[in-house]
Design a protein that fits this description.
Largest sheet: 5 strands, antiparallel
Helix content: 55-70%
Strand content: 5-15%
Order of helices and strands: HHHHHHHHEEHHHEEEHH
Structural class: alpha+beta
Number of strands: 5
Distance between the termini: 71 Å
Strand order of the largest sheet: 2-1-5-4-3
Length: 387
């Protein structure tokens, strides 16, 4: 469960991208909901922009707009746009009120069909001088509709195809625009929009899958950390860049013998005993903290309720998004009994258990240290035998 997530794109087929197939897990239900929400969220701006363009087209081509082959499609398109704007308003007011994936796909497809029929009728009835402008406006509507539904490929492909076919069918055979070049240009535009919808949706699915996997793994890690803090003998510790305690689990507060609110913000070094062992263990930890390097099982003394205790601390440096050092995160544990056992073993190895006097092993260690110091410093030393 702690391995990096697999590449989500490998697990997604084109049928799933199109919405024709999906797994049974809740991820797909949430994905379709997000797709619909995205389309509805962009609907007010897109519908307003398309409505302004269509109004300009109808006003500039008033005579053609009144033709029976154009008016029904215009009224139907206007009604559908009002319906979609009202639906988008409901979705903004209450996010739970969202239409289904295929309902939205059908609405968008009907919009493309009505738009294609209306534009095609206008082109067929307009004079040759206005046909070029109408074709251009049709391509604008095609692009606006396609790009506004990029996250729903089936809706985008169906809509742009219907607008394109309606536009091409409306161009009279005698028009200067008629010919293979117009078909090639329009169909190329449709293919580009369709490909953009497929690629965009595939990337969206991969990103959402990765986010879902990371959330799941993060939840597992969080539960494990909570279990560790609640029942483990060790405790977690977090320090900022000045080595102040920023995270105080209950276990740490119990071991330190202080309230959590008192420990928060306290420099870690202030919790340690600098007098023991000449302060060497604390100075060693201080050097490591100042260097910003990782450390492991550094044993340091501390006073808890007047009793000498030993902690073993491990930590790794943390960095922010810019790579700047922000502190440490690590683990601590109370090793007092282990340290006492080690001290007891060391004492038994160097002192006679009956008399408490130094034995031969301690004598040899001391003698070796004195000779090594004399060689290093050039200062003589002497050995005295007393009966």
């Amino acid at each position: 469960m702690f391995m990096p997530p697999d590449n989500p794109a490998r697990d997604t087929g084109w049928a799933q991208v199109l919405g024709l197939a999906q797994g049974s897990e809740p991820f797909w239900r949430d994905l379709r909901r997000q797709q619909v929400a995205t389309v509805l969220r962009n609907a007010p701006f897109n519908m307003t922009l398309v409505a302004l363009n269509l109004a300009a087209i109808l006003l500039l081509n008033a005579e053609a707009a009144r033709h029976p082959s154009v008016m029904p499609w215009s009224f139907g398109l206007a009604a559908l746009m009002v319906w979609r704007l009202w639906r988008a308003r409901l979705a903004r007011r209450d996010g739970a009120v969202l239409p289904g994936f295929w309902t939205t796909t059908l609405e968008v497809t009907v919009f493309g069909w009505l738009g294609g029929q209306m534009v095609g009728g206008l082109i067929a009835q307009a004079p040759p001088s206005a046909q070029m402008l109408l074709v251009l406006e049709a391509m604008v509507a095609l692009g606006a509709t396609g790009f506004s539904t990029l996250v729903m490929p089936m809706a985008a492909i169906a809509t742009v195809s219907l607008i394109a076919l309606g536009t091409l069918a409306g161009v009279p055979a005698a028009s200067p625009l008629s010919g293979p070049m117009l078909w090639i240009a329009v169909l190329t535009y449709v293919v580009l929009v369709a490909r953009g919808a497929l690629v965009t949706t595939a990337a969206m699915i991969a990103r959402l899958r990765l986010q879902a996997q990371l959330r799941e793994q993060g939840e597992v890690v969080r539960l494990l950390l909570n279990e560790f803090e609640a029942n483990g003998s060790d405790w977690l510790i977090e320090l900022d860049a000045e080595a102040r305690v920023t995270h105080v689990p209950a276990r740490f507060a119990d071991v330190a013998g202080r309230p959590a609110r008192e420990l928060a913000g306290t420099p870690l070094l202030d919790l340690l005993d600098r007098r023991h062992s000449g302060g060497r263990p604390v100075r060693a930890l201080e050097r490591v903290l100042a260097s910003g390097r990782a450390f492991r099982d550094l044993m340091v003394p501390t006073q808890v309720g007047g009793e000498l205790r030993w902690w073993a601390l491990s930590g790794t440096p943390r960095q922010d998004a810019q790579g700047r050092f922000t502190g440490f995160r690590g683990v601590g544990r109370d090793v007092t009994e282990v340290r006492r056992s080690q001290d007891r073993i060391a004492h038994l190895a160097r002192f006679d258990p009956l008399t408490g006097l130094a034995n031969r092993a301690l004598f040899r260690e001391t003698l070796d240290d004195m000779v090594a110091r004399a060689v290093r410093t050039g200062r003589p030393c002497g050995l005295l035998f007393v009966d």
